[in-house]
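A further point concerns the way the authors explain their paired sequence and structure data. For illustration, here is how one protein appears when written out as sequence plus structure tokens:
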Amino acid sequence: MKKILVPVDFSEYSEYALKVAANLAKQHNAEIIALHMMGISDAVLSKNQSKQMLEGIYFMKLAEKRFAEFLDKDYLKGINVTDTVYNYKNFSELNAVALENEADIIIMGSHGSSGLSEVFVGSNTEKVVRNSDIPVLVVKHEMDEFKINNAVLACEFASENVKAYHKAMNFFKALDAEVKLLYVNLPGQNYGSTNEMIERVHKFLLEADGNLNQVENVVYYNDYSVEDGIFNYSNYAGIDMIALPTHGRRGLSHFFSGSISEDLVNHSKIPVVTFKI
């Protein structure tokens, strides 16, 4: 992990992400690329009239000034931080920015508080997750000390998850974190017997690793929805980070159904990281 991209809108949520990025940067001697998307209108950028030009220059100077103030933090001292301003505000194109800067991960702050599906669907974060070829880490709360000891990767244990599985395992290896692989068993037509679950997981691990070394880290958890199972297990097991595979075009919404208690989710401080399938 050499380059960390952090979208910045100067809010408290983007500072949550910046603090996490600072922790990771110190651990891995990485560079932070702080990105602000201004959203200056095409009219301002394309017309040559002095008024529009001056307006564009004004907003650029203002962004540079706010960046200087925003990045003047003690926790960033000693870290190589590069700030950059883009003249458009299209979060679906953040992947191109990440690739252009050779970033290894995108870290974003989010105010979502109604469950995993609400953190992503219909938000700027969802646009980034859907289009990103690199991992996206979503932080919902301030985390002064970012240390991941126990993580969980929740997936369907299908062939299409192999690529995301490899990315997640390498990511957590770099963080020196213990990883549990979570299979959420649902009632109804999706219910699987013990033997069916074991057969599915074994088939997946043999395809992904060529061995069954990770079998001891597999957790089978029964619940009424995938989202319930992920959160309930994570809170029970003291998980520090949740990892999820994501489809590019479809995002995460297909993975979730139902809802969980508002109280549980609102008090969850567990960050979520996604890996593209």
